[in-house]
Fold each of these.
Amino acid sequence: MIKVKNLHKKFGDLNVLNGIDEHISPGEVVVVIGPSGSGKSTFLRCLNLLEDVTEGEIYVDDQLINTPKIDINKVRQKMGMVFQQFNLFPHLTIMDNITLAPVLLKKMTKDQAVKTGHDLLRRVNLADKAQAYPAQLSGGQKQRVAIARALAMSPEIMLFDEPTSALDPEMVGEVLDVMKDLARSGMTMVIVTHEMGFAREVASRVLFVDQGVIMESGTPEEVFSNPKNERTKLFLSKVL
Amino acid sequence: MTAFQEWFTDFSNLFYKCFIREDRYKLLLEGIGVTIRVSLLAVLIGILIGMLVALCNLSKRKLIRFFGSVYTDVIRGTPSVTQLMIIYFVIFATVDLDKWIIAAIAFGINSGAYVSEIIRAGILSVDHGQTEAGRSLGLNAFQTMTRIVIPQAVKNIFPALCNEFIVLIKETAIVGYVGLMDIQKAGDFIRSATFNAFMPLFGTAVIYYILIKILTLLLRRIEIVLRKSDIR
C-alpha cells in the first residue's frame, strides 16, 4: 500500500532521514518509536508529502507520489492525518470541521456529509458536540474530533503524528481507545507515538527509528521482548 | 436678556445663516453622499488590492514579491493628495468616468498598500498547523487559504482593518483638490459664502464624527459575530 525506497530528507545541512526503505501492507498497524529528533515524525510527514522529499521514492498504491506529475491533493484525500496539536479549525463548529473537506472536494453532498458526521461523532463518543466550537472542548475531545474529521474523507490509510503527546495524562486513554477501535476495524495505520503500552497492544509491526534510519522492525513481541539492535535495547531500557 | 439668551440668539442666527438660508444644508447633504460613496467604493477596492498585494508579498517567487514590495513602498512613500491628483489629472485625464469613481480608485489604491500589510500580518498570525491540516485533508493551496486561513486571519485583523477604514473616510476630505463637493468642501464653500469660519467648520467636524460613530458601532456588531467561535 505504501512503499518507501531510499528516503532521504535534509533540512538545510541537517540530515534527518538517511535512507529509509519500508513497505506497509493493507491492514497493517505500524507503530513508529524512537528517541526525539530521530526523524520518526519527519518520516511520517514525508508519507503524505507535508515535507518535500530530498531524495528517494514514495509509492502509494503503486503510484509514485513525489513527482510533480501527480495531483498530490488526490493522494492526500485517501490518507488521513492526525496531528499532535489537533489543528482543528477554530472558526468552524465541530460538524463543519468534519464536513468541510468532503463537501468542498465533492465527495459528498452537504446532507450526506452531515449524516456521516453524526455517525463519526457517535463513533468517537462525541455525539452531543456537533454544534460546539473547538475552543469549548478538552484536549482529548479535540483529538477525537480530529480523528473523526480525517475519517470523514473515508481514507485508506491513517497517519498519526504523536496524537497523545499534547494531552493531559487522564485524556490519553480516551484517544487511544478510539485508535484501538480503528485498528480493530482493519484500517491501515502508521502511528508515531511514545505510548509503548499501546504499541505493544495494537501494533502489528513496530519500527524503531534512530539517526534517520530504521534500526529495527518486527512484531511488538520481537522488538520489545527480544530486541536485537543495541540502540533499540538502550532506548527501550530508558522508556520501559 | 441674560447672557445665555443673548448667546443662544446669536448662535441660532448664525446657524440659520450658515445652514438654512439659500438651502445651504443641501450642499452638506450632497457632500455626505459624496463622502460615503467615495469611501465605500474605496474600501472595496482597497480590500481587493490589499489581498492581492498581500498574496504577492507572501509568494514563493521572488519577482512577484518584488512587485508587491514596490507597490507598498511607492504608495506609502508619497502623500495621498499627490497620488489623488496624479491619478485624476494624469492617469485618468482622458478617461470618461464619474469624478467620484476616479477619486475612489485613487483612495482604493492608496488604502490597498496599508490593507495589504494588515492582511499579510493576519495571514502570518494563523498557525501553520492550520494550513497543514487543510492540505492533509486534500484541499489545494487556494481552498486552504480561502476556507481556513483567511477567515481566521480576518478575525485577527478586524480591529486593525476598522482602523484603516476610519482613517480612509477622513482621508477622503481631500477630494476637494480634484473638484468634488464632499463634506469638507461643502463646509469650506459655506465658509467663504458666509464669511463665518466657526459654524461651517464645526458643522463639518460634527458630521464626520457622527458618520464615523455610526460606522464604529456597526463594525463592533460585526466583530461580536466574528468572535462567536471564541466563546468557551
Amino acid sequence: MPVANNPTLPPKERLILELLVSSGPMYGLELVQRSGGALKRGTVYVTLGRMETKGFVTSEQEELPEGAIGLPRRRYRPTGLGERALAAWGVYTRALELGWQS
Amino acid sequence: MMNSDMPRKVPGRLVLRIARSVFSDAAVETMVVPAIADLQREAAAAPHARARMLARARGYAGLWAVIGLAALVPSAGAGAPVLMALLGRSGGFLVALLLPLLFASLWPMFGAFISGAAVAGIAFTFVIRAWNDRHPATLARRHAAGKEPEINLSGIPVGGDVGGFLFVVASVVMMLGLPSLRGFVIGATTAAALLACGLLTWRRHHLESPGRRIIG
C-alpha cells in the first residue's frame, strides 16, 4: 500500500484523545485550557465535531439546574473506537521510529 | 435542550440568532452553542467588571473564529454556506467580486477619462435597463431564460461561461490599458472573426440541419 494512503491521526485529534483518555470526560474549554496552547477555542469545536463524525468521541449536553441562565455546554468522552485508534496510532508510530533507527 | 428564552443581557444572544439563520441545526448545536456557552460561563464567573470584559473579548474572539470556519471552510463540517453562496453557480459571484479588485489594481493605467467612462457606463446601463423594461427587445428576450453571461441587453451570449467572460474583460483591459498590445488584439480579433465566418459558411453548407446550426 502506498504511504500516502496509510491512515493517520492528526496531532490535534491525538491530543484530544490523550487528554480525554487520561483525564476523563471534559468540556471543550477544559480541553483548551489543559492543552497548554495546542488547542484554540476557535477551532476546538470544529475538531471535536469532526471526531464525533468519525466516531472517536461522543458528547452530551450538561443538565442545567432549574432557573439557570444561558446555554448548556457539551461534555466529551472518548469512544471505544477512539481509544483503540489512539492505542493503534501509538504502536504504529513506535514501529515507524524503530524502523527509522534500524 | 437549548434555553431559547435567554435574557437580553446574556452575551451571545444575537450571534446565536445569526448562526441559526445561516447554519443547520446540527452545526449550531455542535459548534456554535458550546462556544457561546463557554463565553457565558466565563463572563458569569468573572470576579469583577474588567475580568468580565476580558472574558467576553476572549469568548467572542473564539466564537467568531468558530463561525468564520463553519461559514467559509468546507472541511469544518457545516457545509461552508457563506462560501457556497459567494461562489454561486459556476463561481460566477466570485468572478463578479474579483472585477473591482482587477480595476483597482490596474488603476494607474486608466486615469480620469476611463473612470468617467465607467461611471457614465454604469449610469447608462440603468437607463437602458429601465427603457428595456418598458420596451422589451425580442432579441434580448430570446436568451432571457438562459443562464449564460451575455454582452449587454442585445443578448449576445458569451461562449465558455466564466472563462469567456474573463476573456472579454481581459481583452477590454488590454485594449484600454496596454496601447502596445492594441495591434495584437485587433489582429487576433480580426483573424478570429474571419475564422468564425469561414466556419459558419462551412457548417451552413455541410451541416444544415436546424439542431446543428450555430446561429439562426
